[in-house]
Amino acid sequence: MKELIWKGNGFNHVTDEDDLIEKGYTLLMDRIKKAQEEEEKLSEKVKNQKAVLLSRMAKETISVVSQIGLSLLRRGKQDTKGEIYDPEYYREKMIVLGKTNPVPYRPDNPSMPVVDQFCVLSEKGKFYELMYSTDGFLTDSYLNPITPEDVLQIYGEEPLLMLYHAMKDYLKDREDLIQALQRVLDFILSPKVSQK
Q1: Nearest-CA neighbor of 161 among 173, 153, 149, 152?
Q2: pLDDT tens digits for 71-114?
Q3: How far is CA 28 from the centre of its chain?
Q4: Of 87, 55, 73, 13, which is closest to residue 163 (Cα–Cα)?
Q5: Is 80 in contact with 64 (CB distance < 8 Å)?
Q6: Taking the model in full, what pTM does it have?
Q7: Which residues of 79-114 are buried (b: 16+ CB within 10 A; e: fewer)?
Q8: Element at 113 (helix H, strand E)
Q9: Nearest to 112 by CA among 133, 88, 89
Q10: Which residue ranges make up each domain of the chain?
Q11: Residue 117 C-beta-side C-alpha neighbours within 13 Å
């Protein structure tokens, strides 16, 4: 006995064609669900590897840092207008990858409050937190080495994007790598990469 279903203006018998459509729809929905589950698993796998990705990007960017990096202030004296004189700079060039709310005190000297805190990448491919302190007369800094995992935990995903943009702008001979990175970053950070 065929099942009755409601179709617009009354009950009708279910036909073999209706059964076929229903089975096809169910099969299609199962495939979509499985594809979404697989995408979620893959997404988690990729997201769990962000620190590895950041580390590899840093290694690829070493030549860029030595090319475009800055000699950042290590310490200097401040005049009454707040201008720095007698500055000392770090020898290694660095690029700034992010900024965060400063921690209360520097790890090397708990009596020195931190007024600015940045994530930087050195021309040797190492990540640091650059922490600045001032007492109104002397501006001083501390370069705190950090891991890629710490970079992502403290500064979020901004360093990934900053490195990607540095690579995109300055590694013209690595177009294949840049395109692959854009796809990966679009996947794990979307829509942030395509908007910048």
Answers
A1: 152
A2: 999 999 988 888 889 999 999 999 999 999 999 999 999 999 99
A3: 35
A4: 55
A5: no
A6: 0.70
A7: eeeeeeeeeeebebbbbebbeeebeeebeeeeebeb
A8: strand 109-113
A9: 133
A10: 50-195
A11: 17
